[in-house]
Here is the input.
Amino acid sequence: MLRVQVFETSTFVVSFRVHPAHRRRGYGQQILVHVLDRLIAEGREQIMLEVATDNEAALSRYTSCGFEKAATYLYYTLSA
Here is the structure.
């Protein structure tokens, strides 16, 4: 499953997941490359995403597809 939000000047990959039973077979790479190729063909120049900095599998996949780190954010939680 890959979800993309397209805005006038930017495009965000907001959600991307491969079912655990189908991981480590290259499907994630194939899906991502296909979607990125289509977005680029449509003229989308700014494609961004967020990923947890400790998710090494996702970081590896994204950097292999040409993504570069632009910023790192801290997240806060509220304990109830």
About this structure: The beta strands are 2-6, 11-16, 47-49. The helical segments are 27-41, 56-64. The chain is about 30% helix and 20% strand. The first strand starts at residue 2 and ends at 6.
